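Chapter review: from sequence to fold.
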Amino acid sequence: MGAYQANLLSSDGTTPQTKLGDTYEIGGAVYMYCKSSAALAQYGICTVSIAGVAAPGTTTTSGAKPTAVVIPQFAVAAADEYFWGWHGGDFSRYNWNDTSGPFYVLAAQDCATSVKLYTTATDGVVDDSATDLIAGLLLTETITTARAATCMAVSRFVTNCQD
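The token string follows.
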């Protein structure tokens, strides 16, 4: 497809610009190229199939096996759209460059900072109550109401690696 500059700010629409599952690293943050299975909420976790298809992340879509996770930092409007989702990285706290602001994730109410985060039954939302661990993800603030919270990565995101 020739030279391609990763679009980290919005969906690529319904025409792929690179291969599903490709990764792109900048400033310690890693992004994975995915195709949406449905509309995806901004900052919502998504579980990614081996085929590179991202679904709203829940304990059900996480399944009972290690599953890749991405967190789009923008809304994906519909199914079959291609996009780069934040996939973690080595101590990454800031979106594609240090001046574009922090990363966010949708978190349930009363979520603590610097603790393990887990999937929930709610599409795209994480919590600090144990279900399927999302390895490598933690909040950088404590929240009391459900909302998008600042977060950081200490590795690439994957579920079900705690056993």
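Two observations follow directly from the output. The first helix runs from residue 59 to 62. The helical segments are 59-62.
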